[in-house]
Amino acid sequence: MNLSATLILAFGMSMDAFAASIGKGATLHQPRFREAIRTGLIFGIIEAITPLIGWGIGLFASQYIMEWDHWVAFSLLFILGARMIVEGAKNKPEAEKVTRHGFWVLVATAIATSLDAMAIGVGLAFLQVNILHTAMAIGMATMIMATLGMMVGRYIGPLLGKRAEILGGVVLIGIGFNILLEHLGYLA
Known about the structure:
By secondary structure, the chain is mainly α. It has helices at 3-13, 15-27, 33-60, 62-89, 103-124, 131-160, 163-184. Helices cover 82% and strands 0% of the residues.
């Protein structure tokens, strides 16, 4: 794979994380740039690790993981999205609004949005690619896009008010359905 193909792949893999981080940024009360960087790092690191895992799996048992990855991603995103919708529907005073997402919530969201990168890693095991360079490119692109997504969400959140968390949950569930339908062959 040449440099341009690697960059296209890297930024393509980062789009789910970008959409999810917009929702995450919109649900926070005035997230700081430091929180956006933190989110970007968590998403980027996980997105860099998953193609490596997929590559390793691809060397051994690709058919088994590819049969289930879309169901795992869908389930995680659906649960996280439903939780956000329920939380958004509750009446919370402005003082109770969260200024930072928990580490494990971000990790779970990052894992759910990076399972497609694991599947790509499985496919890359059969090609002549430098998996370390490719994984680093995917991780860096995801870090950039997730950080940008958080900052975009910062400005969308006040416009949407209480509905921001509900919308963020709907976005996560939508990403989950998209992954599921794509793998089941309903989307091209």
